[in-house]
Amino acid sequence: MPTPTDSTAAATSAEPDTTPSENPVIEFVDVEKRFGDNVVLKDLNFSVARGERVTLIGPSGSGKTTILRLVMTLEELTGGYIYIDGEALSHEDRDGRRVEVSKKAQKQLRTRIGMVFQQFNLFPNMTVLENITEAPIHVLGRSKKDAVAKAHSLLEQVGLPDKANAHPTSLSGGQQQRVAIARALAMDPEILLLDEVTSALDPEVVDDVLAILRQVAETTNVTMLIVTHEMAFAKDVSHKVMMFDGGHVVEEGHPDKIFSDPDEERTQKFLSAVLGNN
Residues annotated as region Disordered (predicted)? Predict the structure, then answer.
């Protein structure tokens, strides 16, 4: 894939079809998530088509990040089902009973999902190269030679070709987040989850990170589920925007519609506050 500085070349080269298919690659069915007595998500139903880029917006505490963590199996479902390409992610209906699928099956599905966290989550005791190659070698079983070659290519793509032997603690926040993006892409994920990836960054480096993600969106057909307060980014890259509040979908639609003429008063108030409109 081209680097963020290769936009002109990318425009003239052959690019993959980034139009989403109609078949859901992620499907939430009657999903419920509780933390003690606190119901974060209840009766949540939605789907994401293959190649579709869906952005979740809404106030803090509305359940957006919980959705990503459920897809990554970092949180356990309280009720309902999540399907990845039609396969039960953590629980399935077996003869009318809701039962947990095997850990082996869960692990296998997780290899198809990548996540970039707001706090980077890099291993401080490993070099940048080791952070990127660890999972491809030990989870996907790739040869070290192939994993290293891909890692160097990804570091070139994210603008850090000279940082392979550096440790995360020696990097700026923006550099660490670019390494985290490279690490997620090293797994060739079918699904990429982005959780407020710019919220911990200094304002001057936000655009650099978003430029890389725009390149990924424009040059691949990876399915994206995005949580962000960067509304311009959401409008640019999304096929669909979903407004959440109180663990429910308030409304959803094409970004042009949601950002210019939302139907629901709650969406109008949220966007007015975030965008600073009167």
Answer: 1-22
Residue 18's φ and ψ, nearest 5 degrees, are: -100, 15
pLDDT tens column, 83-108? 999 999 999 999 989 999 999 999 99
State what percent of residues in the chain have pLDDT above 70.
Answer: 91
Q: Element (H or E) spanning 92, and its range?
A: strand 91-94
Q: Which stretch of DSSP H or E encloses residue 275?
A: helix 265-275
Whole-angstrom distance, CA of residue 174 vs CA of residue 127 = 16
pTM assigned to the model: 0.87
Quote the CA–CA distance of 133 and 22 in Å, as a whole number: 33
Beta carbons of 228 and 234 less than 8 angstroms apart: yes
Q: Spell out the residues 6+ positions from residue 192 whose beta carbon is closer than 8 angstroms to its own.
A: 113, 114, 115, 116, 184, 185, 216, 222, 223, 224, 225
H or E element that contains 241: strand 240-245
Q: In order along the chain (278 residues), what is the average pLDDT of each group of 10 residues? A: 41 47 86 93 93 93 92 94 95 92 91 91 95 96 96 95 96 94 95 91 88 89 92 92 92 95 95 81
